Structure formats: C-alpha cells, structure tokens
Amino acid sequence: MFANKIICSLLLLFSMVGCAPQKETGKTAITIWHWMTDRAPALQELVKRYEAKTGIKVNFELYAPSDAYSQKVRAAAQGANLPDIFGILGEKRDFASFIRAGYILDLTPYMDENNSAWRNKFFAKALAVDEFSEGNSYGIDSGIYGVPIDIVTIQMVYNKTLLNQLGLNHQRPPQTFAEFLDIGKKIKAAKLQGLVSGWVETWMIDCFANNFAFNIMGKDKVLATIRGEVPYTDPDWIQVLTLFKQMQESGVLADGVVTMINKTAEQLFANGKAVFAFNGSWCVNVYKAMNPSLDYAAMLPPQASDKYPMAIWGGAGSSFMVNATSKNKEAAVRFLKWFTDTDQQAYLAEATNNLPANKESLRKIPEALASFSKAMDYSTHPNIWGVSEFPVVIEAWDRGIQSIILGEKTPEKVASEVQKIKERELAKKRVY
Amino acid sequence: MKLKSTLENYLFVLPAVSIFTIFYIIPFFFVLRLSLFDWDGIGRISSATFVGLNNFKEILLQDPNWWEAMRNAGWITLIALTLQNALAFLLALACDREIKMKNFYRVIFFIPPILSEIVVGMVWRFIINDIDGANIVNRLLSHMGLGQFVHSWLSDPKTALTTVALVHSWKGFGWGFLIFLAGLQTIPAEFYEAARVDGANAWQSFRNITIPLLIPVIILVAILTILGTMQAFVLILGLVGGELAGHTSVPVLRILTVMRDSSRFSYSCSLGINLGIILVIISFIQYKFSERARNLA
Amino acid sequence: MSIYYQAKKTTINTLIHLFLLAVAVTCIYPLLWMVASSFKTQGTIFRDISLIPRQFHFENYYLALTQGDFGRYFLNSIFYTVSVVLGIVIVSSLAAYAFSRFKFPGKNLLFFMFMAAMMIPIPGSFVALYVLLNKLHLRNTPLGYILCMINVGLSTSIFLLKTFFDKMPQELEDAARIDGCSKLGIWWNVALPLSGPVLAVVVVFNALNVWNEYVLALIIFDNKNLMPLQRALMMFRGEFLTNYPLLMAGLTITALPIIILYLLMQKYIVKGVTSAVFE
Predict the structure, then answer these.
(1) How far apart are CA A293 and CA A270, in angstroms?
(2) Complex ipTM, two decimals?
C-alpha cells in the first residue's frame, strides 16, 4: 500500500517534470530563436520598442553556444516544431535542405512589393547570401529566403603598436605576400607570435585559402574547379597550397595555429601577443571587451599575385528566416521588415559593434569597424557562387592545408589527394 | 487464477522491459534502418533515399578518415593493453604481499577511474599544455636539465595521440588493478606454501602458480580494456578539444562529428554499425582465444 | 637467515613501497593541483606553481557558482542523479526479483536480452536516441534524459540484484506469503530491505555514471538551464577561456561530490566490481 503511494507520486513527479511549459495563447506573439549572446540586451530593447509601437509581443529566445543552437534547430526541423523566426547556422547546402523540407518561407514577394522597397534597403552582397539564383545547383526555385541582419567581412587585422615595435610603419601594413613573409623573421627574433586564427576550425582555413585562390587565379577559374572543369592539381591551386608552406617556414604563423580555436586566437591578439590575426568583423566587439586600449586596424590579406584582385569573404553575418509552417508568418514578416529598417539597424550597429546590413544605417560606427566595411567591394562569399563544393572535398582540402602547415604533407601530395576525392564524388553525381 | 498470477509477474518486469525496448531495442533497429538510407538529418525521414549498402561500401573503400580514427583508437588500446595493464598487474602483485597499506592504496588507485573524463581531460590539459596551461611537464624537464625534450605535447601531432593514450592509461589502470588484486587473492595461500616447501623460488612459483591461475582474469581484463578503449572519446574532447587534423580522431568522435556537422546523418549510423561489428568480432576472437588458453592451463 | 637475505628483503620492500607511493602520488597530484589553482587568480595562476597558494581567493567559488552559473548546473546534476538512481533502484529491483523468484513464459529470453545488452555495445547509439527522443518530444527535457539514463544502468543493476536474490534464502519470503502478503508487498517489505548492501552498490555505481555522464547530455540538451555539470563544463571552457581559476573552481565543484561519495562508499564499490567480475 505504502509502496503504491510512493510509486504513484514518483510517476506524477516524472510526468510533471516532462511537461513543457505552456505558452500563453490569445494575442499574437512571435517567437524567435537566436544564438547571439552578446546581442541579447540590445535585442530586448528593440522588442520593447516594437511592443510599444504595435502591441505585439516578440520573444527572443537565446540558445548558446552556437553548436547547441544548431542542434536545437535541426532537431526542431525533424520534429516539425520550429519557431516563427530562426536562423540556420551552416552552409548553403543545409539552407537548401531546410527549404526543400518546406520550412522556409519564400520572402521574394515581400521583398518585391512597393517597387522592391524592402530589397533595396540592403547591401546587394548581404542579401545575396540568403538568395538562390536562377539555375542554382541546389535545385531550389530562385528567390530570397532569408533576411540579413548584419554584415560581416573576414579580413586580417594587425596590431599597430607591435608593428611599430618591429620597426615597421603601422600606417602601411604589408601589401605583398613577400613583404608579409619577411616580417616573419622579425617576429621570430622579437619572440612574438605572428598570425593567429582559429584554424582548428577548418572553415577559417578554407576562407583564407580561398581568398588567395581568387587572388591567384580569379573567380571564374575557382568556380570552374568547383564545377569539376579544372582539377585541383592545376599549378595555380598548388601555388595556393604552397603559400601555406611558405608562411610556416618563414615563421609568420603563430605556434600551434592549427590547434587554435578562434577564441584563443582572439585572446592572443587582444592581449597584444600576436602581430596579426585573421578574423571577422565581429571581433571588434570581442577585442573591445577583452582590451579596450588595443590599437589595431583591418587590412586586406597581402597580395600574392597582381593578376586578379584579392578577395575576402563578406556578406550577411547572421540571417533570420521565417518558418513557412508558422501560424504567425505574416506578423513575423512584418516584424522583420521593421527590425531591418534603418533606425533599428543603426541602433544594433552602435550597440553591438556589428556592421548593419541596411546600407542606409552606416551612420555612427567606430573607426575599427569602419575599416572593415571599406573592404566590402572586395568581398565574395561561397553562398553567392551558385555552386557548392562537395563536403568531403572541402574537408580533405582543409585538413590537407593543416597537414602542410604541420609539415607532414607537400602541397603536391595534398592537391592530388583532394583531386582524387573530387573525381570520386563527381562520379557519384550527388546533387548539391 | 493462474493467469492473474502470471500477469502480476509480468507487471514486475514491465517497467524495465518497456524502458529497455524504447531506449535500446528500438534505437538499435532505427540505426540499422537509417544506415541503409541517405538522410541529411533535416527533412522528413520518409523523403530520404534508399541507398542499400552504399554507405558501408563507402566506409570500407573510401573513408580514410574513419580508418585513421580506427588506427588511432588501436594505438591507444595497445598502450592500454601493455603499459596500463602491466602497471596494474605489477601494482596488484605489490599490494598482494603488502597487507598493511593495501586498503590505502586500493582507495587511492581507484580515484582516477571514478573521475569523469571531462574533469580528467581538463585538469591534465591544464597541467600539460603550454598555451593555456601551466606547462608543468616542460618546466620539470627544463629543471632536470632535459630541456631538449620540451614539446608541445598536446598540440604537436606527433605526440598528441600518445599523450592522450598516457592520460587514458592514468585514468584506467585502477580497474585492472582492482580486478588483478581480487584475482590474486583467490589463489589459496597453500599453493605458495607447498611450492616453497618444494624449494621453488619466487620466480618459479610466480611462473607456475600465479600466471596459469590468473590467465582467465588476464584475458577478462584484456577484453574489457579493448572494448572500453576502442570506444573512448570524451577524454579526447576534454584534453585536446577535437580531432587535431585527424591525429587524435577516434571512431566514436568521428561518428559524433559526422552526425552533427556534415548533414550526412545516416552515414554516421553506418559508421556506428561498422564499429559495433568490429568490436563483436574482436570479442569473439578473444573468447575463442580464452577457451583455448583455459584448456592449456 | 643471513644478514644478506635480510638486507635484500628490506631493500625490495622499500623499493616496492616507493613504487606504490610514487604511483599514488601521480594519482592525487593532479587533483591537488586543480584545487590549488582554483584558489589562485588570473595573474598568479601560471607564475605561482606551488601546491599551496600564497593567497586563498575563495571568491572564485562564489563567482563560479553565480556568474558561471555552476550553482544551477550543480543542482541539475543532483536532480538527475537522484531521479535516475531512484528510478533504477525501483525498476531493476522489481525486474530482478521477478527474474529470480517468478516463473513466466519468456522469462529466460527477456533476461538473456538484458545480459546481451551488457556485452554488445552499440557505438553511436546516441545517434538513434537523438532521433527517437525527438519523435517522442522528449528531447531537451529532463524526463527524456532521466529515462535514457535509467536504461543505461538497467542491465548491470538487474544482473547484480538478480545474483543476490538468487542466493537469498527464501524462508522470510515464504513466511510473509503465508501471512497473506502480496507479491509486491513481499518485494517491498522483505526482499528490498535484505538487499541493502547490493542496493548500495547499485546506488553508488549508477550515481557515479549519471554524475559523470557527458555524451547523452550533449545530444539531448540545448537549453543551458537544463544542462548537467559535465556538459556545462565544456560549454564553460568555450565561453570563458581566459578565466582558469574559475574553470578550476568549476572542476573542483564537479569532482568533489564524487570523490566524497567514493571515499564514503568505496567498500561497496570494490565489492560490486569484484562480485560482478567474478560472478
């Protein structure tokens, strides 16, 4: 008898514990999932303003860190319980998967109404990240499926104080690759660290290598390679790989750069231990928090060739998508229109030190941030190329570069390995 | 009446069987089924394409990363089988004769196993690492005049895996020690008495009494070591943080990475099955081997 | 007994002692280091390499518990551990008792299934659990995690308890039955109390496993507030890279309860391991 009571109460406890909290129904409330811990207060402020203006409640729910966020969104997709608005942290391929599964609202009609009023507010390159163009290789109908809320460019930064210390002119950071390599010797002699970056995260290596690929062989050849028309064993690609070997040998890379996570890299640069860093414009906010007196500026990666312009990755930093199956999708779209409007974007830019996606909002941004925005003309982004490389090829390429830096493989060997994998994947005729 | 009684009996095992079915049996078949498809983990499962045994073909013929992970796990297992278990055995022998402090050492030696892999990984990383750690090993080496051996133990790909293996052994030897000690204590003291009366010295009684009687225990420890170490990976996450360009990649870590990153969800299921099959084969071989060894002894 | 023999014996004994002591030191030293570092500051933690910090900064623990949110994660771990252990004790003792005392069709098959599960590891089963829990809407919920963890400890606990029940003499149960006690009543009033020592082993084993668990927590929880300590530690390291003393404090908060539990119950653990191994 007593046993029964205990078992019953335990079952009751379990069932209570398992129930999800009920959301209040009635007034329209929009739920947004995001991962941006440092922007949470600013977002709350905007939510207050929106409610004051329209009476509609918006709930920004934070799920950090970003790998927990990714997982949550994917799981919600599987279980068909995505919120009204959310972001997809991943590649275009994943974006396409979500669209194919029917979860993403096509925003093109909204973008185009009133003579493309909404569309024209954005930097074209920012919007392009959320756009699928005509005839893209993902099999998605052309259109705009997401809204960028900020812009990010990924460039190099350099520490002005340290550059002066090395006897160089901080007004003129290295312009050519040869100059850059030369600095390596001075860095080693001064017992400083050279370039730091989170190169344990393979996409950052990918980005850096890609910048030089554009510089050495031009955009068309790079895209042709992805399409399978040019092999990775082409001398231009081997030259790209060799750059890494040269950097490692010249000492211009920091120790253990391939085992660094970006946070460590940011720390080292912010604390004045590294002369260069390769990071995205979000770092302005990060460095400011770590060391407000850091004297630094952004620079383009030093040119390895003058045949083609240097490229950097830039475009939408974060984007939001509307859940096509949501009951509040009209209200969600209206909110996003307001959210990305000039004043709100300007507020976000100031409060969180991120570049606005709305080109009319570039009013007051700090100097360090401005130096990032100047390079927007050079920017490109994998999500706007219309073709994607196979993930196994990318992985082999990135790991190959890590091996080159570690001195374990030669550029030629990596190139032939990558090409082999590429040919294998082409034979499978997968659609991406 | 009988029916009611039998039904009551079933009620006793019902909770266990239901939980077991839901959380073990069903996932087992789930994984089997998913491994035959090509699913990205995002869309509906019903829209995934059936690819038969293609995933497995790919694993066997076209996935160097997986076999690198296997080799790495094999290396860690080898170090565990030799260094870790040899150490455990020696310690058990030493404690077997030391009646006084035996309990004290038994308590101490089992502390590493009860710690979590995350705690062990992070603490050792802190001790060993130079960039974000106290760099104690290197400092000791320099102090002792062995400065030329200073290394970035955890970030140098040449040493990272072995460092992981050593930390893993540090954490694991307590198990072997406990089991060996228990095994040693089941050997009746009379055997040794009789041997001494017969004039056998320490080495002879060790070779002819201890070892043969301990063979089943040794094999048991070996099986447990292999099964456990081949699946280890959380320690690597705590110690190194990731796969280090493949150098510290191990099978289960690989499964986790493939599952979460590359949208090849069902491929990660196939990897899991592949590892499971390999472990079952190894267990089977060991079982056969132990039968033969038991007959010899 | 020659003096030579005496000397040799003593030297060997001393060497053995030193060997054992050396190993014991390497077992404890990292933990002492961890605790010592938790009392140091950002600035001194790398320069001051002594085991006893020059200054004790107790506020690191306060900061870890509040700013680092370790207080919440600690409570989460306690909640999960207690729930799972309670659940396993009830579920596995019910089943083990039935397997030991009752007859019903399929009994041997069912028991064999549980034993087979102990031998056959399914690597990467977390992949399938992720999908399954999602379907059942139990992912990212405490209940989902608790049920999963109950399953993890089932086979071993059932095995240990059944072995014990098999050896338990039946007289007391017979007496209770004659007195008119129901099967459940016998289980509750007779079998469970008698199985105290084995239950202690089951409790300690499972408590250890749940407290130290990481993978399932990683797969199941997205919500920070639900995360147990081990998962929170990894997340913490990613977010608060700079603050090593805080991290060490967090590690100590995580490790200390387990060490205390172990020191109190190590007799049972040893008995449990050896009895499970030597059947």
Answers:
(1) 9
(2) 0.88
